[in-house]
Amino acid sequence: MLYYLRAKKESMTSSSELVSQNFIDSYILLSANEEISDSELDEAARIFGKRTDALQILYRTYVDYDSDSIRIDFKYDDSSAEKLLETITDKNIIEFRKGRDYSSSELILENDAIAKSEVMTMFKEDGTQDFIVSVEFNDEASIVFADVTEELAGTDISISIWFNSELISAPLVLAKIDTGLSNITGQFDLESASELAEKINSEPLKYDFSVAKHEFKTAYN
Fold it and tell me: Is the pLDDT of residue 12 over 50?
């Protein structure tokens, strides 16, 4: 039997104003790991909602301001629900840093510098394809990136790219890049390149949350 968290405000919903009680059969309960204000809870709930929406899951979101928790009730779908559970609390922080060592490297740019990210295809002479994740910076960040690449061009200091503190790529700079574009190369297939571009495009979560409890439709079978 499903229960609902007591909320001080009306719950927020996705495009699923179409959702009725009959469609809801699963939930994920998220709990803040730190002190968090009501407005920050609302912001986190909005981000969780966007991530649920991105997986095309019909859902309702409830915020419990007394227990600093957020509950997402949704219609179970096998693959989407598992992916949501796995990624819902990811910070999705992208960082461009000067140098390869995270602890000593200088931060250059973060998520708010990114205008968009997309997958591009490069055809090689043998007819096979390479998949590249292209990152486009906003105008202000493009100037910063141009200055940094001019400084590092021809040196042995790389610009490292990190996602959730994990090194993605650390290319050396051959020349100043003033186009506002950066390409992440690697051994990508279409699926892994698309997943990375999706993560870079996603809105970062500024708050620490854990999955306190979850129940999926399969739990009732």
Answer: no
For helices 78-87 and 38-54, give the axis angle rounded to 10 degrees.
140
Distance, in Å, from the CA atom of 45 to the CA atom of 209, rounded to the nearest integer, reads 11
Nearest to 199 by CA among 137, 120, 119: 119
Count the Cβ atoms, other than its own, within 10 Å of residue 120: 12
Q: Which long-range contacts (CB under 8 A, 24 or more apart) does 17-21 make?
A: 18/58, 19/58, 19/59, 19/60, 19/75
C-alpha closest to that of 184 among 200, 165, 164: 200
* Dihedral sign from CA coordinates of 197, 165, 85, 192: positive
Residues 63, 9: contact at Cβ < 8 Å? yes
The predicted model scores a pTM of 0.74
Mean pLDDT (whole number) for 185-212: 89
8 A C-beta contact, residue 131 and residue 121: yes
94-201, CATH topology level: Gyrase A; domain 2 (3.30.1360)
* Domain 12-90+207-220 indexed as CATH 3.30.70.3400: yes
